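User:
Can I borrow your eye for a moment on a structure tokenisation matter? Would you put together a sequence-and-structure record for a protein of your own picking? Please set it down just below, with no commentary around it:
AI:
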Amino acid sequence: MNISIPINRKRFPFAVVAYLLVTVLFVFNLLYRWDAIEGASGPTDWILRIIPIGFALFMTIISLADYIKTLFDKNASLSISERGIDDNLSLFSCGEIPWNEILGAEIIKVFKTDMLIVHILDKEKYIARQKPIARLVLKRFLRKWGSPVVISAKRIDYDLQELKEVIEGRIK
């Protein structure tokens, strides 16, 4: 049984827009000094104002790159085959995971969005084979949800409950 689940290319890039707005807000704060304390204009003040701009700009670029991959990558999909799961949905996907490495799956609700968490045996192995920036995101997923394999219902054109049942049916 091979199932190929396509990515949802029609989703709105909320993360890109949100990080871009935060970046613009920090830049305006730098230029117009809305939160300035009287007499505070030394190099430390400038550094403390530029660091959040850099972080927000970094997050904007990362989320934009992930959204562009969503739109233009013809191979962006989630495949379920006899060998296992091949997650190629985003820049932060773990790739191919064999069935003997998968422990189970659960659905959780985060901000009114269902997320499928796929629990795997050797989490660090799948994180280590990623690029450095992807590793940071996957480690955050691991701390937050206990697994680096996290699939949002908004990211795919497939019923998450049915996907969970397919995964659990294969590992039993």
